[in-house]
Amino acid sequence: MDPISHFVEYLCQFIPGIKLVEKKQSLLMKLLGKLLFFNKRFMTHTTTVLGKTIYLPSQVSRDLSLMSIIAHEYVHIQDAKRMGFIKFALQYTFPQNLTLLALFTLLTPWEPSFIGFLIFIEALFPWPSFYRIEIEMRAYSMSLLFELWTKGHTRLKAIDETVDILHGSTYYWPGGNKKLSQFYFKIILEDAQHGILPTGNAFREVWRYLEKEKYVTRSV
Questions:
Q1: 202 phi, psi to nearest 5 deg
Q2: How would residue 107 be classed by pLDDT, with cut points 50, 70 and 90?
Q3: Around Cβ 85, how many Cβ atoms within 10 Å?
Q4: Rounded distance between C-alpha atoms, residue 180 and residue 157, angstroms
Q5: Whether the Cβ atoms of residue 44 and residue 58 lie closer than 8 Å to each other
Q6: How do the domains of the chain map onto residue ranges?
Q7: Dist. CA 90–CA 104, nearest whole Å
Q8: Which among 123, 129, 125, 124 has a CA at the least distance from the CA of 175?
Q9: What is the pLDDT of residues 142-196, one digit of tens each?
Q10: For residues 48 and 192, what is the distance between their CA atoms, to the nearest angstrom?
Q11: pLDDT tens sequence across 130-144
């Protein structure tokens, strides 16, 4: 069994049903790729998770970097299980999901409200999404910790690169303060070197796998 399949099999011990699917093989992902026009790299470079399925872009190699991506998405899967998928999805897509109420204002049996439609359709704009920031910060904490564990250090620019992605078009410009995000990630990395990991089983489970399989170059 190749290392990637072995890692996924290990994670399935905790959440059965996790699987990898190539985006180019998914009609749903192709449709989303058209709708998410602001993310030009959606099909080629962005990994997406829905439920327990991790959709992989075309530009990805089956090596340690892919294992890191899977670990990142595993945090989302664990958080969705803990919160409940519906609550997780609603928080992640808020406030843009309020756009659906615009359709409701036009489909009511009484007189359609054009003003209501205009109010809710504005939710499509890239308003701040603090829930999305919080959810992704947890997942990117895993990405940075994965690099620390497997390489023995984190690149000097890793945090800055992560913050730029987190606050940019990939996540529809969700707002937030970049300096606070940088501070958060620095604390996460410092705590990890003293054996303190973020809350949630995902971090401990991934750490144990990497340690058992001899990927770790620095003890926690």
A1: -55, -40
A2: low
A3: 13
A4: 16
A5: yes
A6: 3-94+129-212, 95-126
A7: 17
A8: 129
A9: 999 999 999 998 888 999 999 999 999 999 999 999 999 999 999 999 999 999 9
A10: 26
A11: 999 999 999 999 999
What count of residues does the chain have?
A: 220
Reduced to 3 states (helix: H, G, I; strand: E, B; else coil), residue 21 is strand
In one letter, which amino acid is 77?
Answer: I
Give the pair of three-digit tokens for residue 74.
């595993």
What does the radius of gyration of the chain's CA atoms come to, in whole angstroms? 19
Structure tokens at 12: 């399935």
Strand arrangement of the beta sheet that strand 48-50 belongs to: 19-22, 53-56, 48-50
With CA atoms as reference, report the closest residue to 200 among 132, 111, 139: 139
What does the alpha-carbon distance between residue 29 and residue 22 come to, in Å, rounded to a whole number? 9
